[in-house]
Amino acid sequence: MISIRELRKVYPTPTGDVVALDGVDIDVPTGRVAGVLGRSGAGKSTLLRCVSLLDRPTSGSVLVDGADLSGLSGADLLAARRRIGNVFQRFNLLDSRTVAGNVALPLELAGEPRSRRAARVDELLELVGLSDKKSSYPAQLSGGQQQRVGVARALAARPDLLLCDEATSALDPETTRSVLALLRRVNEELGVTIVLITHEMDVVTTVCDTAAILEKGTVAASGPVAELAATPGTMLSDGLFPQLGAADVAGDGRAVLDVSFLGDAADRPLLSEAIRATDGDVTILAGGVETVRGSRVGRLRVAVDTTAVSEATKVLRTGGARVEAVA
């Protein structure tokens, strides 16, 4: 379990302090894939550097399996960092080394014997599907292949935690999907906990179990990805259902409701049940259904006669839907 508590990072500048993180609380269960989603400048990369202690937080704590990394130094900090692998946006491979040499680098730095290094490199290159590129150099590889080498290198020292900073933002959509599938395989087969920093909602909905949404250095929302997608007003929900972004006014005598469905509720004819129960007019203004991490998520914006709002809301909520008045 990763437990981040009251994390704060302040950068002093000649013109005043810049607060990059302001009281961030995030939990990542062991063996899960967690996303940290936010726009540029939200504090995502700062958060990742603080988790790995590449950048020390101004205050707060970062606990990994109960050990507070923010209180470590010297040999203890180095040992803790060996349990954390990093995958970078720009790959950060050494051009002068072959694929095998890049993957072996963490093992060399850790003092692993040559024979054990070679066996581990072969194992990892098979895992990421690059056994035939062992003697190639980074310049001879595609972007996706280079990122696979980056993943293999990050796994070399058998970390418990993998931190990925915009690991797919430099890749085309098809290559992104293949790298995300690899990360999911790493999680499921090796049991490695993964934290993905990204500004891409598709990354979160494709591979993450949970997510935290950062806005201006604070957590705006967090929880299971499907629940965030079904919650109106979150960056994830508004991104999946952009047509519901602005409130539509239905006119005199009618109210506008946002209705969110998750899981089994998305497959039930709840709107029909509400219409039958109220004997009123219900007009669909906008809506959509998406599949997020295996769960169906639906959102509708409907106009309902004001005299029927109370009963319609009751029927929908009884059936498991979330209902919020828009206008």
Automatic annotation (TrEMBL):
Signal peptide: none annotated. GO terms for cellular component: plasma membrane. The lineage of its organism: Bacteria, Bacillati, Actinomycetota, Actinomycetes, Jiangellales. One of its GO terms (biological process) is amino acid transport. It comes from Haloactinopolyspora alba. SUPFAM superfamilies: ACT-like (SSF55021), P-loop containing nucleoside triphosphate hydrolases (SSF52540). It comes from the Bacteria. This is D-methionine transport system ATP-binding protein. Gene3D superfamilies: 3.30.70.260, P-loop containing nucleotide triphosphate hydrolases. Homodimer. Forms a membrane-associated complex with FtsX. Keywords: Amino-acid transport, ATP-binding, Cell membrane, Membrane, Nucleotide-binding, Translocase, Transport. Part of the ABC transporter FtsEX involved in cellular division. Has ATPase activity. Belongs to the ABC transporter superfamily. GO terms for molecular function: ATP binding; ATP hydrolysis activity. InterPro entries: AAA+_ATPase (IPR003593), ABC_transporter-like_ATP-bd (IPR003439), ABC_transporter-like_CS (IPR017871), ACT-like_dom_sf (IPR045865), MetN_ABC (IPR041701), MetN_ABC_transporter-like (IPR050086), NIL_domain (IPR018449), P-loop_NTPase (IPR027417). Residues 2-241 form the ABC transporter domain.
